[in-house]
Amino acid sequence: MLQPRILKVEPMEAYKLKLNYETGEVRIFDVSPYIEGDWYGELRNKDYFRTVRVISGGSGIEWSNGQDIAPHELYEMSSLMQ
User: Fold this and answer.
1) C-alpha span between 38 and 23 (Å, rounded)
2) Is the full-model pTM beyond 0.90?
3) Radius of gyration from C-alpha coordinates of the chain
4) Which residues constitute the domain of residue 54?
5) What is the number of other CB atoms lying within 10 angstroms of the CB of residue 64?
6) DSSP state of 60
7) 1, part of any domain
């Protein structure tokens, strides 16, 4: 299934991301389970975590050193913001 495009990503407290989708949905994704090990461990640095950005075209999100999370995971494992 193709995921809707991400229009905006905002870092939040407790290693969460607020994702705004082209459908109008606003979803919350918890990154904390990902911040272990060498590759994702850098995300524990809160200043670095806040540098997250939307990939050109809205297909996903990334950090400057290449960490990313699959678009289907972002959508399917996030919760709709109430």
Assistant:
1) 35
2) yes
3) 12
4) 6-80
5) 10
6) -
7) no
Could you give the maximum distance between any two Cα atoms of the chain, in Å?
35
Provide the CATH number for the domain around residue 35: 3.30.2020.10
Contact 60, 69 (CB under 8 A): yes
- pLDDT tens digit sequence for 11-41: 999 999 999 999 999 999 999 999 988 899 9
Give the separation between CA 68 and CA 51, rounded to whole angstroms. Answer: 12
17 located within any domain:
yes
**Token output for 72:** 């289907």
Q: In 3-state terms, what secondary structure has residue 34?
A: helix
Are the C-beta atoms of residues 50 and 44 closer than 8 Å to each other? Answer: no
Instruction: Give the closest residue to 9 by CA, choosing from 70, 52, 40.
Output: 52
